[in-house]
Amino acid sequence: MIGHGFMGAAHSQGWRVAPRFFDLPLEPEMAVLVGRNAAGAEASARKWGWDESATDWREVIARDDIDVVDVVTPGDTHAEIAIAALEAGKHVLCEKPLANTVEEAERMAAAAAAAAERGIRSMVGFTYRRVPATTFARDLVAEGRLGEIRQVRAEYLQDWLMDAEAPLTWRMQKDRAGSGALGDIGAHAVDLTEYITGQRVTTVSGIIETLVEERPLLGEGSGLSGTATSERGKVTVDDIALFTGRLESGALASFEATRFRTGRKNALRIEISGSKGALAFDLERLNELEFYDATLPATGLGFQRILVTESDHPYMGPWWPTGHMLGYEHGFSHQVYDFVTAIDEGTQPRPSFEDGLHVQRVLEAVERSSASGSAWIATGD
Ligand code: SOE
């Protein structure tokens, strides 16, 4: 695993726990954790259960005893690391969004396609596809329970940047993160929409905005818990992204991604309306799915709250008895299960780098639309 921030912890947990609950066809060995700072990498490796730590990812990728590379670094290094790993014959799991630019994502998708010819697998870490309730939602749509999809509303709402004095971390720098709320959380809203509906976003029109243009530079530590210095730096990414889009079928979708939605902590919400039914999901209540069956007699109509904790629900079998909830971290175990299974079976895991490239095109189209006024921009699919 390369990187050891927040996502490093989440992925480590997935690698550690998945084989203990799921019958994996292959046994992952948590071999090496790589970080630029030797002491930091070693401390994280010890804490999360990796056998060794290292500081040079190129040396680690060259090792014969490494089969899989998990990239959990900021976006500015995804392309270089993932392409090198694929070329070295390693299966690659890469955090979302796939890259910082379409150009990088195109190179990554091309490398992934070439590697696939040699049996090498790659996947993007859009983990919310692996929440049982969102997978169940996808199943309901695929079974036709919603009929023809007419309208989607997808939003990812957080408020962790409301404090204008919060330090300027890498997530607020375009050269490191690619974009702000748009790529960090809007990308999840796009991926989840495409996953559940089974349709791609074909055109968008949007607006992105930065509310706090300057912030104190980061001193000690990292992330929001880091200290602020008296010097200030420019925020070069968006804080809010709003856009509308059209799906392949012509259905309309609206998207919202913000780090300034007061009181909303991690609300990835999606509501889908179809000719036969509707569904609604909110990550802040991730064990639940709301379903409205419009085919019932009018007297019985209403959204029903399905607790997605039955052993027959997606991914739930190996976990706890009915009604015993899962949390944020379980998606990372499901991600490991799916990835390792695909490696063993020799199938293409989804979301593929091609899927990640498409999301990148949507993000870029939103940026172009915002910069150019209000034009509709095709996403290239
Ligand atoms: C920060 O906004 C963040 O951690 C994202 O980077 C993650 O992808 C999302 O899952 C939660 O919020």
Automatic annotation (TrEMBL):
Keyword NAD attached: yes
Q: Which residues form the Gfo/Idh/MocA-like oxidoreductase N-terminal domain?
A: 1-115
Q: Which domain of life is it from?
A: Bacteria
Pfam families referenced in this protein's UniProt entry, alphabetically = GFO_IDH_MocA (PF01408), GFO_IDH_MocA_C3 (PF22725)
Q: Could you tell me which SUPFAM superfamilies the record lists for this protein?
A: Glyceraldehyde-3-phosphate dehydrogenase-like, C-terminal domain (SSF55347), NAD(P)-binding Rossmann-fold domains (SSF51735)
Q: Which residues form the GFO/IDH/MocA-like oxidoreductase domain?
A: 137-279
**Per UniProt, which keywords does this protein have?**
NAD, Oxidoreductase
Which InterPro entries does the entry link to? Gfo/Idh/MocA-like_OxRdtase_N (IPR000683), Gfo/Idh/MocA_oxidrdct_glycsds (IPR050463), GFO_IDH_MocA-like_dom (IPR055170), NAD(P)-bd_dom_sf (IPR036291)
PANTHER family named in the record: BCDNA.GH03377 (PTHR43818:SF11)
Q: What's the protein called, per UniProt?
A: Gfo/Idh/MocA family protein
Specify the species. Answer: Microbacterium insulae
Traced from the root, the source organism's taxonomic lineage reads: Bacteria, Bacillati, Actinomycetota, Actinomycetes, Micrococcales
